[in-house]
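User: Design a sequence. Structure:
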C-alpha cells in the first residue's frame, strides 16, 4: 500500500465517520423535535440504535470472511477461493464495524 492510497483511505474513513455522526445527531434531534422529551436521551437512543446496526453489520461481514466466495459470471453464481490477503481485509472490515458499534454504544452512554 502506498502513502497516497493510505491517505485516500483515511480521508474516506474520516468522511464516513463525520457523515455517520452527523446523521445520528440529525435523527436524534428529529426524535426530540417530534416526540418531545430530553434532547440528550433522543441522541443517546439514536447512537445506541446505530451501534446495534453496526454490530449486526460487523457480524454479517465476519460471516463472509471465509475461504469460499461467490462471484457472478454471465448471470450465474460461481464459487471461488479467496486469497489470504482478501480474507484478511474482510476480517479487518468486520472488526472495524464491530469496534465502531461498540464506540457508538459508549457515546450513547456518555450522552444519555
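Assistant: Done.
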Amino acid at each position: 500500500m502506498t502513502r497516497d492510497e493510505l491517505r485516500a483511505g483515511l480521508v474516506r474513513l474520516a468522511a464516513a465517520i463525520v457523515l455517520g455522526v452527523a446523521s445520528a445527531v440529525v435523527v436524534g434531534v428529529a426524535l426530540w423535535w417530534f416526540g418531545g422529551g430530553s434532547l440528550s436521551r433522543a441522541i443517546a437512543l439514536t447512537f445506541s440504535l446505530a451501534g446495534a446496526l453496526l454490530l449486526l453489520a460487523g457480524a454479517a461481514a465476519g460471516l463472509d470472511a471465509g475461504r469460499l466466495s461467490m462471484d457472478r459470471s454471465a448471470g450465474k453464481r460461481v464459487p471461488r477461493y479467496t486469497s489470504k490477503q482478501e480474507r484478511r481485509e474482510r476480517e479487518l472490515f468486520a472488526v472495524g464495524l464491530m469496534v465502531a458499534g461498540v464506540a457508538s454504544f459508549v457515546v450513547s452512554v456518555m450522552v444519555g
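The chain has a mean pLDDT of 84. Helices lie at 3-35, 39-63, 84-111.
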